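Usage

Read records sequentially. Each one opens with the input sequence:
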Amino acid sequence: MREHQAGKSPEARLGDAVSDTPAHGWAGIDKTVFGVSLVIVVAVCILGIFFTEAIEGAAGAALGWITSTFGWLFILAATGFVAFSLVLAFGRYGNIPLAREGEGPEFSTLSWIAMMFSAGMGIGLMFFGVYEPVTHLATPPPFVAAEPGSEAAASSAMAYTLFHWGLHPWAIYSVVGLALAYSTYRMGRGNLMSSPFHSLLGKERIEKGWGKPIDILAIICTKFGSATSLGLGALQIAAGLTLLQTGEFDDDPGAALPIIIICVLTVGVVFSAASGVSKGIKWLSNTNMILAAVLLVFVFVVGPTVFILDLLPNSIGTYLSSLMSMSFHSAVFGGDEWLASWTIFYWAWWISWTPFVGTFIARISRGRTIKEFVLGVLLVPTAVSIIWFTIFGGAGINAQLGGLDIAGSGSEAAGFFALLQQYPFFIGAAIVVMVLTAVFFVSGADAGSLVLGTLSSRGKKEPWKPLVIMWAILTGAVAAVLLFVGGLGALQTFTILAATPFVLIIMGLCVALYADLRKDPLRQRRMGPVRGATAVPTTVPFAQPVETGSIDIVDSPTKREPHDK
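and closes with the structure output:
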């Protein structure tokens, strides 16, 4: 028995998430989601330009209230996402594919990892690669009983750095990306942040009501999260250009040069965004990997090689042994300012990126199993982060222990260049850092604009290119405005403000995903009857193989109605 899939165009393939209205151009845009999101983003930009001090003061007050009142929520949620990801990977749902049966991955494993990694935290690695470890060395976290500049402080500095860039951030990305990939390619729903909630509230309630606020919040969250990364990248490039031009670090670089850099690189983002995932983003991501590898090898060879090799097992051991205590540190007995500046900021930053990174890695992960997806998203980038921070952070710590004050050299963006000054071929290495940061800037903003276009186009896989370009330009504009309002502090503040309500959405996604997985016919069943079920669930529309190009569902021997009909 075959039944036609409602709402799909004749050329659609089974498993492709297509809008109920296969419209193109302006007609394919969700006017409500796009209009409300655009008004909010533009309003923030205008208020930031004309009422700078008032916005800065109000945002600071809101930040203080959120971190003191809801800091515990960020801490518990981030650790909970780690546990949830691992349970899915190694539990009864690990072998379920994020696709119809028999469908292989769309991208090679190498390109998949490259795109995922560069989109996830590329600019942050460049900005904090040296700066964070040496800062924790010079000023240890309040939860660490170590003297500033001591060997014990160095060990804890690496542990906290790996904590902030390891399993926790990628678990946040993992749960969102997994929920979206399963909903899109296994259940055949639209590629929207609201689509997984069909399992909890029903298709009609989501598409005609609750889904729109969720998608609007996702766009706002993505806009400020990606703008933070672009702002950090512009600050670092500006620090490098100033150093090469004057030979000195600028303690107060101002916002003029970073804003000019944002404007220039946004032009590159526009050209890349117009070329799509398979061309622009894929090529830039692979270029990132090559340049990053060259820089890693250079510092490893000319830097303190033996010290770095000794630091690697020590850092991993300290990170793993301290993981539980670091995961649950709160401000109940002090340390609230430090947590707001570091851990809570990081968790909020990753959360604000989840609509972007989650949607993007879901887009490039079609065909992977749940176990493969979780392990790939969780372990591979974490391993790369460990190597990255051990080499660059280790070289910085070695120099700091040797008497070079990297932590006090110029602005936060200058740490990387302060380290490279101690090695040969400084000018060439500094240029590579700036080029790599610029490529991360373009590839990250490119992928973010594509996701924003998808979110405002009812989940369309290939959104209207003028819409993608418009979002790319607005991303640069928001980054420039935040730098104008208050530099690095404003970037951190608005990131936390945007991410606070979205942490609740991610929790809801976890519940929605679990509700879907319990009905999947490919889950590994336990001995005995399934609680509350009298027959094997067969509600996943793409659980059976079909011929390529078919728009029909091959029904199972048990007659059933089409899903979500």
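Summary fields computed downstream for this record:
- The first strand starts at residue 2 and ends at 4.
- The mean pLDDT is 82.
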